[in-house]
Amino acid sequence: MFDPLQSVEEKISRHARVGTTPSREIVIQFNADVADGMPWKFIPTQREVKVKPGESALAFYTAENSSSAPITGVSTYNVAPMKAAIYFNKIQCFCFEEQTLLPGEQIDMPVFFYIDPEFETDPKMDGVNNIVLSYTFFKVKE
């Protein structure tokens, strides 16, 4: 049963006590887009990673300002399929934080995340073996 108030450590411990250690591997795929009029290159550094529920993982996205002026952007994200989103937990993320890049500047931005161990035992997640984490960068109006 999904309990959003229980910590991931408590869930992993409970699953270990009852013998439901995660065995299922989930492929997390990464997508990156920029909104119309945003002169940035924005790509995931890796296309995918494989994780088991309860394991943490680190991924990176790279953004580059390809214009001749400083630009501030902010990103939003979504998780697909939507029903898996409640199990996707970001520990550290660049989303919703303004990023200012100088002309030609390039930065790597980390996303540190885990899949909630409850994913393993939720019958609604049967057949969900791939999750897509997608970010879109938008230009902040000055």
Low-confidence stretches: none
Strand tally: 9
**Sequence of strands across the biggest β-sheet:** 3-1-9-5-7
- Strand residue content: over 45%
CATH fold name, please?
Ctag/Cox11 (Pfam 04442)
Mean pLDDT: 87
Overview in brief:
Helices cover 7% and strands 46% of the residues. It is mainly beta and 142 residues long. The chain has one domain: Ctag/Cox11 (Ctag/Cox11 (Pfam 04442)), CATH 2.60.370.10.
Report on this structure.
It comes from Triticum turgidum subsp. durum (Durum wheat). It is found in: Mitochondrion inner membrane. It is a single-pass membrane protein. The chain is mainly beta and 142 residues long. The chain has one domain (8-139): Ctag/Cox11 (Pfam 04442) (Sandwich). It has one helix and nine strands, in the order αβββββββββ. The strands form two sheets. The chain has a five-stranded mixed β-sheet with strand order 3-1-9-5-7, with no helix packed on it. It has a four-stranded antiparallel β-sheet with strand order 2-4-8-6, with no helix packed on it. The longest helix has 10 residues, at 8-17. The N and C termini lie far apart (46 Å). The model has no long low-confidence stretch (mean pLDDT 87).
